[in-house]
Amino acid sequence: MTETRPPRPRRMSWSGDAVQDRLRRLNLMTVMPPLLLVGVLLVVFSSKTWWHVVIQVIGLLAATATAERWTAGDFIRTARPSLVLTAFVWFAGALSNCAMAFYGLSMVGSFLIPPLPRHRFAALVGFAVLTGAIGSTNLLLHQDHLGARVLGYVVTPAVGSALSTLLMFASQRLYDLVAELEESREKEAELAVVRERVRFASELHDIQGHTLHVVKLKVALAEKLLHRDLERAQEELREVHTLVGDTIVQTKELAYAQRRLNLSAELENAKNLFEAAGIHVRIDRQAVVRSGVDELLGQVLRETTTNILRHAQARQVRITLTEAGISIVNDGVADGAAPVLSGLSTLADRLADQGGELTVEQKDGRFVTAAAFPEKVSR
Asked: Does the reported pTM lie above 0.90?
């Protein structure tokens, strides 16, 4: 028995603030300019009276409002009234011999039909027939040049509306693909953060799991020796005390990212995480990092990588290494107050204790994290 896959639903509104922001900018750059340009040219060159100018401007404004809201969540609320308004505009244009007044209706309809969940072809045919039917009212008042009027007020508007709608099907698909790519990028970033958390959990398990197992065995042994060899039991308990103390120190180091890190490994790890999230990363090695600072710089890089994946909508990241410092610059920073980055605050204190300095700056949509050691740091 062959399993049938359900049809893929069409979007009614693209969800997600980041996705909508990107699609909105794309819409304003690619769809709005030609729509306005063609509309203005039609108003200028096809209007014979002031009445023609008025009705075409009304239709153009309704089409512009619909196009502007196309990538917004309230698109339908704007498009439906605009469809009714532009239908009346085309009706008035047909009665007053304004053959190009159908432009607003054809634009609004072309935005409305592609997002429909089903019966899109039937809606396309019905829309073309409706446009031609409205235009045919011109034939009721004017009987001269019948063939030219049929072509100008019935055939051309119907075909033009159908063609503009077909073009919008292609735009709809393009925007759907962009939205899918953006959503995939967000999921990859979330997955990268999850991987980092899994890594942390794995290291925590390595530290505490072994210790707890050993403590359990030693406590059981001390319990058995308590009445037979008190000195040996006390020795086992002292070892348990020492082991627990060491584990507390290791756990604290892990929690504050103070375990020894390899800067080269952290660079490779950051590169892989950014590329997995769809972020272009560039690494500039201006000098070989001197001995004694690479571990702290690796901690700064790890913490900054996590912050970029969590808090930014970055497209590009540039990592620059000098002899005694590192700089990480990323774009995609939202306007407003900078996010609270407690991990970097902790690292700033550690760097200061070692004679280094950590600076964080947000400016012009970019976030800069830089760490430097003016003096040589001894291990």
From this structure: no
